[in-house]
């Protein structure tokens, strides 16, 4: 009954200090008010010595009743708190992912694309109140999933992203333009594109700067990420006879000036990820930069628990009154 109990008026517990004072009064003062007679034998008197010894029980019952009343005055209660959250400023996010053959380079473990998918999945899980969509691009671009609040759909789509779905190449402008197209009708307070590439723009019929201007027109912020180590990386260079890639060392080329310009024009930020750890740090930073405002409503419900204590005090006083007027009547 008293689990998770809180007290609305705990100041009443100071009254408990009166209990030891009452006990002292009973031991030293009340004892003098009881008449006594010293005789050599009580054999001729009809006196119940056991009842006389149990007479302090009456006072104990009163003390217990008083303690129950004081505790009831402190108003014990159980507090039940329920919460409801409402997104007041949601964010719509499109993640534009480069799926060209260079994303199979092994400077990140096990390769760039797999490392990105792992980090991006964690990022998606940390955005439960936002809508997220996926765009893949190589020599052309396509929408893997439109913006949705169903994170299971986004995560499944992310796992399915792989090299070979599109003609090889790097069409940064196409990837950015397709992402803008996914967000231009959005009613969200904040619209964000996270565009990742590991190369230079060499395909597509939309220039990256043109796509960036369109993003500005629709109020879409773009964070750009250049993926790849500094120097050379073990990358696909040609095909083997069985259709698999043959790997060799290639210079890592990322058009950082272009990515910086896109980020600056749209009000975003450029990042460079040279290894798995840096990639994780970048997505963590973007996660902190783009905050969704959540309004939380708390509902309090109180269940009062003083009534059982009042009933207990009444029962103790009733028992004390009954004993005082029956068994102990001759000793009062």
Automatic annotation (TrEMBL):
Keyword set, alphabetical order: Cell membrane, Membrane, Transmembrane, Transmembrane helix
Pfam family, one: BatA
PROSITE patterns: VWFA (PS50234)
UniProt KW Methyltransferase keyword: no
Origin: domain of life: Bacteria
InterPro entries: Aerotolerance_reg_N (IPR024163), UPF0353/GerABKA_families (IPR050768), vWA_BatA_type (IPR033881), VWF_A (IPR002035), vWFA_dom_sf (IPR036465)
Gene3D superfamilies: von Willebrand factor, type A domain (3.40.50.410)
Domain spans labelled VWFA: 92-286
Residue spans crossing the bilayer: 12-28, 306-323
PANTHER family (UniProt xref): LEUCINE ZIPPER PROTEIN 4, SPORE GERMINATION PROTEIN
Protein name (database record): VWA domain-containing protein
Annotated source species: Flagellimonas nanhaiensis
Organism lineage string: Bacteria, Pseudomonadati, Bacteroidota, Flavobacteriia, Flavobacteriales
């Amino acid at each position: 009954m008293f689990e998770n109990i809180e007290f609305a008026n705990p100041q009443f517990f100071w009254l408990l200090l009166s209990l030891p004072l009452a006990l002292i009064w009973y031991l030293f003062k009340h004892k003098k008010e009881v008449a006594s007679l010293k005789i050599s034998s009580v054999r001729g008197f009809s006196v119940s010595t056991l009842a006389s010894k149990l007479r302090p029980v009456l006072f104990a019952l009163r003390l217990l009743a008083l303690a129950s009343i004081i505790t009831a005055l402190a108003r014990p209660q159980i507090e039940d708190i329920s919460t409801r959250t409402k997104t007041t400023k949601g964010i719509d996010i499109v993640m534009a992912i480069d799926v060209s053959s260079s994303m199979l380079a092994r400077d990140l473990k096990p390769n760039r694309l797999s490392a990105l998918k792992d980090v991006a999945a964690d990022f998606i899980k940390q955005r439960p109140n936002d809508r997220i969509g996926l765009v893949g691009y190589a020599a052309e671009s396509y929408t893997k999933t439109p913006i949705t609040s169903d994170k299971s759909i986004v995560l499944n789509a992310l796992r399915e992203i792989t090299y070979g779905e599109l003609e090889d190449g790097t069409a940064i402008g196409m990837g950015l333009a397709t992402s803008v197209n996914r967000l231009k009708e959005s009613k969200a307070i904040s619209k964000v594109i996270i565009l990742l590439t590991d190369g230079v723009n060499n395909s597509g019929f939309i220039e990256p700067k043109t796509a960036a201007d369109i993003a500005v027109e629709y109020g879409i912020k773009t964070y750009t990420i250049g993926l790849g180590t500094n120097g050379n990386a073990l990358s696909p260079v040609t095909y083997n006879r069985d259709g698999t890639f043959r790997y060799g060392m290639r210079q890592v080329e990322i058009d950082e000036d272009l990515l910086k310009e896109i980020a600056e024009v749209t009000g975003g930020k450029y990042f460079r990820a040279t290894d798995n750890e840096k990639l994780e740090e970048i997505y963590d930073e973007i996660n902190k930069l783009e905050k969704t405002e959540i309004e939380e409503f708390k509902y309090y419900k109180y269940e009062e628990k003083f009534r059982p204590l009042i009933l207990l005090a009444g029962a103790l006083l009733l028992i004390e009154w009954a004993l005082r007027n029956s068994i102990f009547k001759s000793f009062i």
